[in-house]
Amino acid sequence: MERFKAWWDRPEMRDALAHRDIGTVFRLLVEEGVSQREIAQVTRQNQSEISEIIGGRRVMSYELLERIAVSLGVPRGHVGLEYGVVSPQPAQDEAAKRASFLARAAEAVVGQPVFGEAGEVALTAEETPVPAQVGPSDVVMLHRVLGDLTGLESQFGGGVVLAAVEGQLRWARRLLGVAVRDAVRPALFEAVALLHRRASSAAFDMGRLDRARKHLLAALELTQDAQNLPLQAMLFYCAGRMEQYHGPPDAALRLFQFGYPVALASRSPRLCALLEVREARCYAVMGNRESAERALSSAMENFHAEGDLPVWLEFFDEAELLAAVGVTWAELGEWTRAVAAIRRSLRHRGDGVALARSFDLAELATCHLRSGDVDEGVRVATRSLDLVEQLNSNRARDRLGPLERAARRGGSETSSVVHRITETRERKVTAS
To answer: HTH cro/C1-type domain location, by residue (predicted)?
Structure first.
């Protein structure tokens, strides 16, 4: 709009626009005498939303950011928005499209152009429209999609779902920029945050750590805006889990410990147990047996305590707890206790969790080999490899590393297993 044009090049306004700090942009407009009501009318938002943005709520939707910029007449370059280049397609009427399809279909089946020469049939990407207002049914749909993607990752690996979940996220994040009732907003933010968490998990499973961290940060921003403390604590668990396998143990421990006060404040003992059992492994790796055993004891107690259990925390069941306990005992060199815990974990595993079973079996085989039970170690290692080779997961292949090191100590008795592990680890997979 012309009346705002003179303000966009002022230093303070340019700085706010460069950082996409829309709250400061709106505040500066108000200081110039523009009412919140007028800003709301111009940008097609509710006045309460303008007030929330001025109060600190971030504008994270690209679509909403673009709408604000266009409505207020902000030069697109000031906020880092670029126009996409679209190649115009020649217009065709339905009759021409139908004839082109028939000719192409016949040529594909018969092998020659029986209905004349077939033109190229171009597939153009079209954005799925978002509703004018987000309601409860939209949130339910996001959770159903999330459940399906989670099940696919658990059974086949992150490579199967990474592209799909990121595609779903592009649409879901557009929902953040449309009208939404206050009663629905927290549930919407949680659903989109959980999609980011699933994308992070899939990226982590494929060894794409930078991508995984970016999704976690996006999820943390959403939980901060919605003041969703329980989910925030779980995201610190996710971040720490990555560091456990790709960084020093003290880095992972700091993340688990950072999330623990948040878990306490959320009054969910199960959430506290999730962080404590991971802390235990960090202490074990660092050689602090006393702290490791204390953390294990507290985790077991909290796991069985009464308290809130959000749906997204149901993955942390008896099998997950026992697997984590077994890994910690293995780090402490307590092979008998480790084997017992991991065997119990495998008995509790349901169907459709091939990824987790592959981890358990690899850890169990390692324990048997390290304790001198070579025959059982080879047998269980073979079961683990049978699973891993079917998974689209680089993490499952990386988790064979300790098993390979243990098997190399077995000499000729384990040479065939070592060869198979080496081949499997070298065959890295890519996302579908």
So the answer is: 24-79
